[in-house]
Amino acid sequence: METQNQANVWLSTFYSHIDSMDMDMFLSYCDENIVVQFANNPVSIGKQQVKSDISTFWSMLHKMEHTFQNVYIDDNHLLLEANITYTLKQGKSVVVPCLSVITRSGDLVKSLKIFIDLNPLFQQ
What we know:
Strand order of the largest sheet: 2-1-6-5-4-3
Radius of gyration: 14 Å
Helix content: 25-40%
Mean pLDDT: 95
Number of strands: 6
Shape: globular
Largest sheet: 6 strands, mixed
Structural class: alpha+beta
């Protein structure tokens, strides 16, 4: 079982690619058959569908930043509590709390479940 420090290092690197919206680097951490559940959107299965679905969301953003609050480790699962600052292309910034459940096989993500309410991004 990995240590808390190892998990934090892995998560920091993984989320640095997400925060920079580097799709190729994000996908390099993912299993070919990755399953992603993002908010209340339909489940995405496989790298190509994940790329398409996540790219659609990222296209609305100017930038994002994950600020880790807590990390929990259980065998091949990581649970991350974070506050995410989303900055939309029109300049609006919103901080939204999030819980992500990551299941890995080795260093590859097999499943990513992101529990988040995105409604604040779309409120006036």
